[in-house]
Amino acid sequence: MKRYRLVYRGLRDMYYSFDTQTKTRASLGTNNAAEAQRLIDSQNEAAQHTEMNLQIAQVYLQHSDPALAARTWQDVMKKIVSLKAGSTRERWENAIKDQAFDSIRYRKLLQTSAEHFLTVLTTGTVSTNVFLRRAHNFAIGMHWLPWPVLPRLQWPAIQHKDKRAITLAEHGQIIQRERNPELKAFYELLWHLGASQSDLASLTAEDVNWLERTASFDRQKTGVPVVITFGEEAAAILKARPQTGPLFPWLAQLHEKHRAKHFSKRLATVGISGVSLHSYRYAWAERAKTAGMPERYAQQALGHSSKAFARSYSKNALVVVPSLEAYEHKTAQVAVALN
After folding, report:
1. Same-fold call for 68-154 versus 168-313
2. Reduced to 3 states, what is the DSSP secondary structure of residue 71?
3. Strand, coil or helix: what is 293?
4. 68-154 fold
5. What is the largest CA-CA distance in the chain?
């Protein structure tokens, strides 16, 4: 049975195509019977020979890009890595080693189906989902794919594990147990400044402005400049650090994963689990929210421009909302003072 049927509407003097599967009708844009019949025949032929039409499309695409026929997902991932630098490149280099990608690694882009992607996503992790999405979007953006392999709404949702902030009590246990003065100062400044471990480890004495009592740096991950004021407790820690060059000479030379290992060992000695060095940033954000710090300041300190991201950092913060009466009273006092 043919999928499309020719329909004529005399009142409009127009021919229509009726889809017997979807029960929908679409104008053919003509009132010429012969032309309308040719259009209907073309639609039915396309519906009956989808595989052949795909092969024809591939021939045209190969003519416009000779490398298209041979390009694989490994080629896509290698190209992405070549365009990255620093820690972002390192993350991509590690990500593409994921064994979940093996089933499509050397599969040609034009021979990839949604089922192939779903197999990768089923066997992989959250990281697999994130990096496959990026590789897929890159291939589309480069016009290496004429159409999406997996429609946007069909991608499994990315569900990150819940992360929590380190508590004041836990921080106290860590500081009390730590015997290495550089590590101890490092953990204390993470608590006070809310910087990422890499940004803080790279901080130098020259980044500290004692006149204005600020520490400034550019976030390594995003390049966003951060200038944060420090208080008396942080000042005392900074004064005990080198007054020229790196504040943490030993830690600055370590890779972030090695700094994380030292922290994990310390956690084991005090019986704390479920946190990482990044948990200090969550703690800073929650404390900032609880203390009533305006969100724009917290965003600037954390180095993020997204409100949604800043809120995710402070989602567990408990805030006591003051009464409207108190605000009205304060407003009245201001008005009286101005008069």
Report:
1. no
2. coil
3. coil
4. DNA polymerase; domain 1 (1.10.150)
5. 92
